Amino acid sequence: MIVLGIETSCDETAAAVVRDGRETLSNAVRSQAASHAPYGGVVPDIAARQHVDALAPVIGQAMREAGLAWDRLDAVAATCGPGLSSSLLIGLAAGQALARRLGRPLYAVNHVEAHLYSPFLAAGRSAFERACPCVALIVSGGHTLLALAEAPGRYRLLGQTLDDAAGEALDKAAIALGLGYPGGPAIEQASQGGDPRRIAFPRARPRRPNPFLGTMDPDFCFSFSGLKTALIYWLKAHPFADGADRRERLPSVAASFQEAIVAALCDRCQRAVRKTGVATLIAGGGVTLNARLREALAALARNNNVELRLAAPAFCGDNAAMIAALAGIGLGQPVAGACDANPSLALGAA
Ligand code: KG4
Ligand code: ZN
Description:
The protein is of the alpha/beta class. The protein contains eleven helices and eleven strands. The chain has helices at 33-36, 44-66, 85-102, 111-117, 125-131, 166-176, 183-190, 225-237, 243-276, 291-303, 321-328; strands at residues 2-7, 12-19, 23-31, 75-81, 106-110, 134-139, 144-151, 154-160, 280-284, 307-310, 333-335. Helix 2 (44-66) runs parallel beside helix 3 and helix 6 (166-176) crosses helix 7 (183-190).
């Protein structure tokens, strides 16, 4: 089954063609980062307008790079949530129009579930089935959660962030440090040569009672907003004196902040792996591009004798290959009539 996937949940306009949920024939992504950079974060109205402009050329690029005629497509898939409502609607409307024009089915795909499948993108559904049950860490600018994948399509949310997502905390910290947007790669670069133990930023762990926990186990939940505030206060107390002082101290500040995030992510992953007794840990989402996080997760997996599967770099950040792939392995929702975006679509929800 050859699927054209469309992804417009946030600020990446993406289209990709994937065969049988595992063979990526093309994977086109157009980033809007430069347009949002002056604002230090994604501006929904700008994102939606740019999707309108970029989507047709990006779809054209994906089809050209796949080297296929339109009639070779068996289906179209588009992200229906979670994400920014106005951005999601543009990808969905385009998918719907295209599917109707081609006389092919349209599948609506859950963005978080697609990130969850992304470590298996080159291996396929059977590799995903064999890895289950596994603990999945999804960590991006919009999401930070741990889920137990019992089988493809069957997930249990173990815990999530009670405030900021890890990528969001990195993005906000980068603004405070004058490093620009997006913050994750900027902080990773700034931390080169720095000492991650120089500053003891707080590694908060949610505890009961906490009204945001609900029925979630605090051992599997995250909180990053206090860490961001700690950085802001630290910078007020220890301002950079001049350019030379900044050049000298910035690497250790950035490395210490990044390490606090990595440590929190790994701590919760370890608790989840131990408590559930699974044999496999998987991870996806934009923050898993971070080399220090990849290295720390690999060490965690070795120490706990579990297998680690990380998404390949091309499939970590938002992309449409993971959307096409999810539909290709039968996990998209067929759209019969009207299809609405759901900005807060939960993992496992239809
Ligand atoms: O998955 P993604 O592209 O979009 C969402 O679904 O949110 O993730 C974007 C996030 C941003 O917060 C960005 O700062 C972060 O991923 N990110 C990184 C790195 N590259 C991107 N974080 C840490 N290290 C990186 N190298
Ligand atoms: Zn994402």
